[in-house]
Each structure stands twice: as structure tokens, then as C-alpha cells.
Write a structure and sequence with these properties.
single chain, mainly alpha, 5 helices, 68% helix
Length: 152
């Protein structure tokens, strides 16, 4: 939160550091949700294209994070001098959206890669148990002999 004082001076008031950390936290939460959603969607849609999907999720996550960051800055409040020009002295106004921890841009690709590995591991386990059950049934039928395995 910013406040315009006498002479056109703009000062930070309130808990600016907490606000900046909260903004970075919200960006991280939304990026994690987007990454997990993208990984879930693509692991179900393309279960056999592992390397291509993984690279696409990583690169797409970085691009998506940068686009979301820049779009948030573009659609957010105006720059401080522009915003301060339209308010009266003593009035408080919001400053521009800024991402203070650029490491949060890696939340989307990291979460999508981890979620993709988890989804593929779960799908692979499910695929491997089905053929094993069928193989066990077939071995049991063959070991029982032709007279017992024939339908009656």
C-alpha cells in the first residue's frame, strides 16, 4: 500500500514486505495448481509419449509462468508515478504488481514434472498388474490340464 504525501512524495505504508510475500505465495499456489492440472491432463491423454510430454510440460510450464507473470503486471495497477498523479494528498493507493522472488517462476514446471512422474508411475503399475493376472490365469489353466480347463 502506498500513500501520497505533501509535495507529491509517495511512501510505503503498512506491511509492504508481507504483501510482497503474499503476492509471491499466491502466484506459487496458482502455478502449482496449473502444473499439477497440466500433468494430470497430459498423462491421461498421451500415456505412451513419455519424453515428449515431459519436455513439453517443462518448457510449457516455464513459458506459462512467464506469460502469467507478465500478464499480471500488465493488467495490474499502473506504475507509481501514473497512479500517484490521480490521487489526492494523504490518499492511499495500490502499487504495481511485482514478483519479488523470481524463483517462483519454476513452481509450474517443477510441479508438472513431479506430478507427471507420479501419474506415469501409477499408470505403469496399473498396466503391469493386468497382464500378470491374465498370465497367472493362463498358467493355472495350462497346469490344470486340458480336461479340466475345457469349458463344460
Amino acid at each position: 500500500m502506498l500513500e501520497k504525501q505533501g509535495g507529491g512524495v509517495v511512501v510505503i505504508v503498512g506491511r509492504a514486505t508481507e504483501t510482497a510475500i503474499a503476492a509471491d505465495g499466491w502466484f506459487t499456489v496458482l502455478a502449482l495448481i496449473a502444473g499439477i492440472g497440466a500433468a494430470g491432463l497430459w498423462s491421461l491423454r498421451l500415456p505412451d509419449a513419455r519424453l515428449g510430454t515431459l519436455v513439453g510440460l517443462a518448457v510449457g510450464g516455464v513459458v506459462g509462468s512467464v506469460v502469467a507473470w507478465r500478464l499480471g503486471e500488465a493488467l495490474g495497477p499502473a506504475a507509481i508515478p501514473v497512479a500517484a498523479a490521480g490521487v489526492a494528498e494523504g490518499a492511499r493507493f495500490d502499487g504495481p504488481l511485482r514478483l519479488s522472488a523470481l524463483g517462483v517462476l519454476l513452481a509450474w514446471p517443477t510441479s508438472s514434472v513431479i506430478a507427471y512422474f507420479a501419474a506415469v508411475a501409477g499408470l505403469e503399475t496399473a498396466r503391469q498388474t493386468r497382464p500378470r493376472r491374465a498370465l497367472r490365469r493362463r498358467v493355472r489353466d495350462l497346469s490344470a490340464g486340458p480336461e479340466q480347463s475345457a469349458p463344460q
